[in-house]
Amino acid sequence: MTGPVRSLAARYYTDPEVFRLETEGLLARTWQFGCHTSDLPEPGAYATFEIAGESLFAIRGHDDRIRVFYNVCQHRAHQLVSGRGSTRVVVCPYHAWTYELTGELRAGPNIGAIKAFDKSTVCLSEVRAEEFLGFLFVNLDADAAPMDDWFPNARAELTEWVPNWADLRPHEWVEIPENCNWKVSVENYSECYHCALNHPTFASSVVKPETYDIQPQGKCLRHTTECQGLDDMTYDIRSGFEHFDEYSSWFLWPMFSFQVYPGNILNTYHWRAVDTDHVVVWRGWYSPEEADDATISQLAAQDRETTVAEDIHLVESVQRGLSSRGYRPGPLVIDPCGGVNSEHPIMHLQKWMREAVDLDR
Fold this sequence. Notes:
Blueprint: H1 11-14, H2 16-24, E1 32-36, E2 45-51, E3 54-60, E4 66-70, E5 84-86, E6 90-91, E7 98-99, E8 105-107, E9 126-132, E10 135-139, H3 147-150, H4 154-161, E11 168-178, H5 182-189, H6 195-198, H7 200-205, E12 213-217, E13 220-226, E14 246-252, E15 256-261, E16 265-275, E17 278-288, H8 294-322, H9 344-358
Antiparallel strand pairs: 1-10, 2-3, 2-5, 3-4, 4-9, 6-7, 7-8, 9-10, 11-17, 12-13, 13-14, 14-15, 15-16, 16-17
């Protein structure tokens, strides 16, 4: 007789060797968020970011295409750019080797002295990139399947819930450091078994818990629920769009989630793993360009003071517990009917987590 599904062993969250395997394998072969395309408004605009320990930069070309390159000169390996900015061409600060916005080598001091050198053979190393409703994702695996294969229907569904996505710009970004393994934080996000006890504002003022469910769509976990009645909401949700009276979330394995609050308000979670015991969660909120949206500022502040603060306490306590000699992985509560009091999304997540590490061994 098959016994209950049990949670992962503690070593998956506490062993530095597991984190090393994830960095070299999982994080380098999955779609990771780089930047918002509004950071690249004109040709020559660039933004740097780090994925799986690699420094990368995105830059918009004169053809309006955004390309992503490893942030390393092909001459003698100096990093090319830092932060964000705009440039006519990419110039290495070390020896002034110069690259076109397409990555092709343009010039370098005295390179004509190199016998039989063909500069067309030198180009910056490009990385797979996709624009996804204004968000730029990258994958270090050149053979990775497209995002629509990984996350079926997510793009189309998000377009329905956020029909004005092309007009949105980051309204607020907040970096939230958490003293826990990234998987502890992701698991906390991906179940609402703990919500009634730990998130009274979210459970009573945003969603209707008895309608909350989470189901997999490929490597996406789709959260759906009705929201509280109009009279119970803390803000006016009548946006004029469909789905204005619903909450939904699309968690894109392994480290990004789109959330749409009632009123079609877009916000995101973005996890950046630091090491075995630390993760930084970037919490983003978005509004139409030039808008001074007091409602979104109010929601962001409420979120920080309630759900975010409540979750930090929870995940850091879990990380401490995972290091205890007394911990033995307990059974997950899997309800065949799903619902708010079931941990079936954790079952799916932990399967992906186990496969990501064990397949690399």
